[in-house]
User: What shape does this take?
Amino acid sequence: MRIKKLPALLSLICWLTYPAGLWAYENHQAADVVMGQPWMFSNGANYGGIGADTLYTPYAVCSDGTKIIISDFTNHRVLVFNQAPVSNRIPADIVIGQPNMQSYTANNGGRDADTLYHPMDSYSDGTRLYIVDYHNHRVLIYNRIPDQMPVDPIRADVVIGQPNMQSGVANNGGRDADTLYYPCGVYSDGTRLYIADFHNHRVLIYNQIPDQMPQEPIRADIVIGQPDMTSGAANNGGLDADTLYHPWGVYSDGTRLYIADRHNHRVLIYNQIPDQMPQEPIRADIVIGQPDMTSGAANNGGRDADTLYYPARVNSDGIRLFIADDYNHRVLIYNQIPDQMPEEPIPADVVLGQPDMISGASNNG
Assistant: This one.
């Protein structure tokens, strides 16, 4: 993702922050507020110098309904804003991964519970914070988010993907239920934890979320995209409803599971999530962005309302579905979520970032 995509990505704040049904969307709708830039038409990295109000390739934004949390990828930090912005370029209240707002070094001071190396995604359930620490091949869990910046750097309480806070090797000890290889996405429904394990071509599900570090590395209970915990090939066995190729984003409403299957240019929907690993690989029920489960071409049939090109994120407010369609430089909104695969490819109803469904230029216009 390039820095010029910043305004389009942060336009997602409007639906992440406010309750479902408050917004009526229309094609090419303009954003109201920009974060990280002084104006809507500026796009410089750390514009004016790194600080609490600048960003450098932000990769993800989320909200718990009050706070806004941004994964500031190239600055190796996560910024927390205590309230949703009402004006441009408001400063963050809290920084995680750095000792202060002016620092931006990877693993500043050495890899530990208080450092980050390219945070890719973050999510908060209102109490805990989850951060995908991409280049350290781990996910960090913070049991609470402080309301103000403490004297000492903020430390994670739990690490997933590594045996301790000082380790950062890909598939440390060999690919298994307790390792990660460039994870990209994280989500929790309050009970279970979901991690998109990008380079292992799988999504891992943890049935319980630990609040303290156990003696042994934390193991996933269920794998999606692979037949077992030690497999990691892209589209293992051939492109189908039970395979993945670089999954990027993951989301669940507590019943259904949604995966942005980036390199297959599709989003998969699973109507049910098993509590334990079944004998057969888990298959998706619905595909968006492709005409069937065995297709995987970018903008299959030509860019339109029913195609995708490297989708990055997926989310839902319980009624509508939202997809960040990265290489088409747009966000697609589907007013209804299908519960079974229709005969025709599923089209989006609204596009943000483009004037129509067939356009896909960056900063169009």
